[in-house]
Every structure is written in C-alpha cells, then in structure tokens.
C-alpha cells in the first residue's frame, strides 16, 4: 500500500507531513507552480520547498512540466501533480448495488464498475467486495499497486440510533463494525463515511465546489442526506451521523412530512408506482423527465417547496457559500427542482454581491457518492490536518 505521508512518530515528522500536504495541496489546486510561488503560497522557506519537491518528484507524486520566464534570472521550473503517481479507490454500498471507482491523483476516474446486489447483508457485501478487489487487480494492476487507500460510503445513520429502521437503511449493519469488515474484505486501510458527505467531497475535487471551502450538498440517494464542508473539511459529527436531514419534518399542503418522504428518489419512485409506473433506475427517470411526465411534475410541485424549507434551515445554520443539489437523480430533474424552489428572503444567504448563487446543481452525476468515496482519500492527501501537530 502506497503512502503519501512519512512516519509521524515525533513533532518534527508531523510538521514535515503537514508541509508535504501543504505543497501537494497547493500544486493540486493551482495546476502547476514553481518553487518561489510555492514558498510564498505555503509560507515555507525556498529550501524547505526544494527539499519537499525533491522527495515528491523521486516518489513520482509530482513531475516537472516545463519552465516559465519571469523576466529576470533563470526561468522557473514548474511542477504539477503526476496523475499516475498514486490512486484512490472509492466504494459505494447501496441497497441494490455495489459501485466502485478508481481515481488517479488528479481525480480522474481510470476505472468504474457496478455489481448488482440481491443481498445487502454484511456477509454478502463482504463476498462481493473480495470479488471486486480481484476484478480491479486484473483490470488495473498498476493502479491497484499504488492505491493510497479506499473510501467506503453507505447510507447513514451509523450505529443504532433513533433514526434506525427507515426505508433507506441497509439490513443488518447497525450492530456491526463496518469499518473492520470493509478493511478486511478490501485488504487496505479505509475511510468510512455516509454517502452525502462523500458526494460533497467529490464536488470539491472534480465538480461544482472546486475552489470552495464552505458549502453544503443536498444528496439524492435512496433517501436524502446533507453533506457539509467547512474550511475545506467534511463535518462528520461525533458519531459520523451529521447531516441526517432527510428525517426532519417539513411543512406540506397536507400538514408535515419527513423531507425524504416527499423529496427523495425513493419518494418519487413510490409516487410513480402508485400510478402504475415502474421507474427502477436513473435512465428510466431521465426518460420520464424528457417526456414531461405528469406524475413527475406533480412530485416536483411537492418536493420543491419542502427542499426550499430545508435549504433555508441550512443557510441560516451554516452560512454556506452555496448549497449544491445532486446525486442519483437525472440532471434535468434537479434543474427543474431548483427552478421551482422559491427560497425565503429572510436568510443570511440573501445578500448582495454574492460570488456564487444560493443554489447550484452538482456536476458529478449519478456516481457522485462513489467518486466522493475516493475523493475522501485524495482530500486527506492534499489537505493539511493541523490537529496532527497537537
């Protein structure tokens, strides 16, 4: 297993790890930079930057890309991330499928795969994960040999809580050490998170949240969840269950209802089924949207006001740069929801001179959470963890 970080047994080693992340993160965010630029941007000496760059080049994590003349002295040597220097695996567990993606160091997918699940209990998922690992080793042996680790995401909440037993739950997982099961099945260290948080990170690495440090992501999965990013880091909560917004009750024309009962993909599929329509997958929903389906339009008229109330809460609680909507709903449906969401004016986000709209559609598509699972690993590699110095 490849590691971007050196051993961290002493304070100087932890500081070195932090500085490597600073340099890697800045190069990743900017595209290509020279030593002097990195020194200024990271607040490090030229010598410190030169030493870190030499190590990263030797390890294959960054590469020289050319020279840039500054008008004085020798042209500056430029460095960029080496896409093949390392890879990250993302795995998403859904009630009916296991999805996986391998991303290179720039966040580009080099492999995506989907395994149907007829049984989502832990033992069955473990067997599928082992088969998935073998499949990836055969398809992308070089990438698998240079994996930094795996991010695994699944619907929350984690552990037995007052929210357990909802329709979006996976059976048999609440009393289980899921992290240990995934690490053993995949044979590598893992990060475990809920699908909404992972989707939020995907948009930061390769989507609508690039360049943003504080934003919220409303994720349409089987249910509906909220991913929060503050100062570039996901907000997980004490037990990994922050963002379970789908269970909050919203005002509807018929009283109140849980948000995911009126605005999730599952709620749309149930409404369609009540009218004798089967829409089991993403492509079927996209086709219905293209046909201006009347039942779909009715669902949008109910879902949009409920989502607007949820966004109003999110804005006043967290003051995000924007609220992104996306996930396992076709882009056309998300666009129609956004167009019908009348956001209240009494919000901290309703201010002049905004750099970003209050609502933004996500750009990572149906694999957002899968890509986000891998993005959890990349974000850890590129983002300084200042607590490591304590």
TrEMBL record:
InterPro entries: ATPase_NBD, ROK, WH-like_DNA-bd_sf, WH_DNA-bd_sf. This is Putative NBD/HSP70 family sugar kinase. Belongs to the ROK (NagC/XylR) family. Keywords: Kinase, Transferase. It holds the Pfam family ROK. It comes from the Bacteria. GO terms for molecular function: kinase activity.
């Amino acid at each position: 297993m490849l590691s971007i970080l050196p051993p961290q047994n002493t304070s100087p080693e932890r500081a070195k790890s932090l500085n490597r992340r600073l340099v890697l993160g800045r190069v990743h965010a900017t595209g290509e930079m020279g030593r002097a630029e990195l020194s200024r941007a990271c607040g490090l000496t030229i010598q410190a930057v030169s030493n870190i760059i030499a190590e990263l080049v030797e390890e294959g994590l960054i590469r020289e890309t050319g020279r840039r003349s500054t008008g004085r002295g020798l042209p500056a040597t430029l460095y960029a991330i080496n896409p093949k220097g390392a890879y990250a695996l993302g795995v998403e567990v859904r009630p009916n499928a296991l999805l996986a993606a391998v991303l290179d160091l720039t966040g580009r997918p080099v492999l995506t795969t989907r395994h149907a699940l007829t049984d989502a209990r832990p033992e069955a998922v473990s067997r599928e994960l082992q088969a998935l690992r073998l499949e990836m080793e055969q398809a992308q042996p070089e990438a698998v040999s240079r994996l930094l680790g795996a991010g695994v995401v699944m619907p929350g909440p984690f552990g037995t809580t007052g929210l357990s037993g909802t329709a979006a739950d996976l059976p048999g997982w609440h009393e289980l050490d899921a992290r240990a099961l995934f690490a053993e099945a995949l044979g590598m260290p893992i990060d475990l998170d809920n699908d909404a948080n992972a989707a939020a990170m995907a948009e930061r690495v390769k989507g609508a949240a690039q360049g943003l440090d504080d934003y919220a992501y409303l994720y349409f999965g089987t249910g509906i969840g909220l991913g929060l990013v503050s100062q570039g880091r996901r907000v997980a909560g004490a037990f990994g269950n922050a963002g379970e917004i789908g269970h909050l009750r919203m005002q509807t024309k018929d009283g109140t209802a849980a948000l995911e009962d009126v605005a999730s993909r599952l709620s749309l599929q149930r409404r369609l089924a009540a009218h004798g329509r089967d829409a089991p997958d993403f492509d079927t929903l996209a086709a219905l949207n293209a046909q201006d389906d009347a039942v779909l339009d009715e669902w949008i008229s109910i879902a949009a006001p409920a989502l607007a109330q949820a966004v109003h809460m999110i804005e006043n609680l967290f003051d995000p740069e924007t609220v992104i909507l996306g996930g396992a709903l076709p882009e056309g449906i998300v666009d129609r929801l956004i167009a019908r969401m009348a956001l209240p004016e009494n919000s901290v986000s309703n201010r002049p001179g905004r750099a970003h709209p209050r609502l933004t559609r996500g750009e990572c598509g149906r694999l957002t959470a899968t890509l986000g699972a891998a993005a959890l690993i990349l974000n850890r590699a590129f983002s300084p963890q200042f607590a490591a110095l304590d």
